[in-house]
Write a structure and sequence with these properties.
Low-confidence stretches: 263-344
CATH superfamily of the largest domain: FAD/NAD(P)-binding domain
Number of strands: 17
Structural class: alpha+beta
Bound molecules: flavin-adenine dinucleotide
CATH architecture of the largest domain: 3-Layer(bba) Sandwich
Strand order of the largest sheet: 8-9-10-7-11
Radius of gyration: 25 Å
CATH topology of the largest domain: FAD/NAD(P)-binding domain
Mean pLDDT: 78
Number of helices: 9
Order of helices and strands: HHEEEEHEHEEEEEHHEEHEHHEEEE
Number of domains: 3
CATH class of the largest domain: Alpha Beta
């Protein structure tokens, strides 16, 4: 139901294509943060962290340090511990068990001519081939290029993924030849196979929720220790997981969490900041006291039986969580600092 609602809300029946690829989306970001701040082709192998301090180690022996980290690794990378977290992310184990990565194989085929566009099929953009291994094809319409994309998903793709690339190609060409009643192999100029299952930086195509894993996406998204934040399509729980839109929205959500966190801590003293980092954000790890959204916690908000020291207020509702931080002064019973409750 969530997925249906999400699709309707964003008019998912419309189709968008970025002619120069998704790198276009990054360009305004790169312009805003400076050319050196964004490092591509850099593989992370280890993340050492403690509340308020993170060091990331890359395979080319570089290290990067920060106070907070947004982790956007694909689901299988986290599930298979392909990046080592020290200490390990044990809090994420149930969430990672509740989610799965689906398989997709995509084959780009460049022919001498676009034999699929004929006088009676001038605007063909999409072809369904029920019962075939490659059950769907996309043309490049409205760009008129002699290129077809063959698509295969699910358990069939899992089996296919184990074959050699050349064998997968021949399989697709055989099916296409039958479909168009002509031998298309001789007209092939170039081809490219995307096999995300065997890609060590992907491990699969799109995530889905396993039976019983209902709240796993939200749990995967939940920050740890005020220091590790999580984004990526598998962390979307609005019904947009497995899409670019879901991935983008999750990135915004994680950035908001970091900013709110920084603002909430910024208005307080060091002690509160340290206490916030030490307490962490897991609902089980905080005192579940009260929710106050959109406003600073006032003096009157402090329950009488609360222990001295820093404390965190958290509430997790159906669609939002709110946190606030405050500190009770020794014996005075008043809040020294109060982070406004904000939606997480
Ligand atoms: C065939 C196919 C068709 C699709 N079609 C659509 C579509 O039409 N519309 C749509 O909305 N979505 C589509 N999707 C889904 C969409 O591409 C994904 O949901 C989206 O890209 C997920 O974004 P992400 O940032 O979560 O993950 P990714 O895009 O996978 O980004 C994760 C990044 O982490 C990097 N990484 C992994 N390990 C490491 C490491 N150790 N160190 C450093 N970096 C690492 C990877 O290289 C990758 O760049 C499609 C997916 C597939 C496979």
């Amino acid at each position: 139901m969530r997925e249906r609602r999400a699709e309707t809300a964003m008019h998912a029946e419309r189709s968008f294509r970025l002619p120069r690829g998704y790198v276009e989306i990054l360009e305004p970001l790169r312009a805003a943060i400076g050319p050196d701040a964004l490092r591509l082709d850099t593989t992370v192998e280890r993340v050492q962290w403690q509340p308020g301090a993170v060091t990331v180690h890359t395979t080319d022996r570089k290290t990067f340090s920060a106070r907070k980290l947004i982790v956007t690794l694909p689901l299988p990378i986290l599930q298979q511990n392909l990046v080592t977290f020290e200490p390990a992310l044990v809090e994420k184990t149930p969430a990672l068990r509740g989610l799965r990565m689906g398989a997709v194989i995509k084959l780009g085929l460049h022919f001498d001519d676009a034999f699929w566009w004929t006088d009676d099929r001038k605007r063909l953009g999409f072809l369904q081939a029920p019962g075939q291994t490659f059950a769907a094809y996309w043309t490049t319409y409205p760009v008129l290029a002699p290129v077809l994309f063959a698509w295969c998903a699910g358990p069939i793709a899992e089996k296919l993924a184990r074959l050699k690339d050349e064998d997968i190609l021949q399989h697709a060409l055989g099916e296409l030849s039958k479909m168009f009643k002509q031998r298309v192999g001789a007209r092939l100029r170039a081809w490219h196979l995307h096999n995300w299952q065997t890609d060590p930086l992907a491990g699969g195509a799109y995530s889905y929720v396993a039976a019983g894993g209902d709240r796993s996406q939200r749990a995967l998204a939940r920050p740890i220790g005020g220091t590790l934040f999580f984004a990526g399509e598998a962390t979307d729980w609005s019904g947009q997981h497995s899409t670019v839109y879901g991935a983008l929205m999750s990135g915004e959500r994680a950035a908001r969490e970091v900013l709110h966190r920084a603002q909430a801590v910024g208005v307080h003293d060091e002690k509160v900041a340290r206490a916030l980092a030490a307490l962490g954000d897991e609902p089980g790890a905080v005192q579940h006291l009260q929710v106050k959204r959109d406003g600073l916690l006032g003096h009157g908000d402090l329950p009488g039986d609360l222990a001295d020291g820093a404390w965190l207020i958290a509430h997790e509702g159906e669609d939002a969580a709110a946190v606030g931080v405050g500190q009770r002064a020794q014996g005075e019973g008043k809040v020294l600092g109060g982070g406004g409750g904000h939606a997480l």
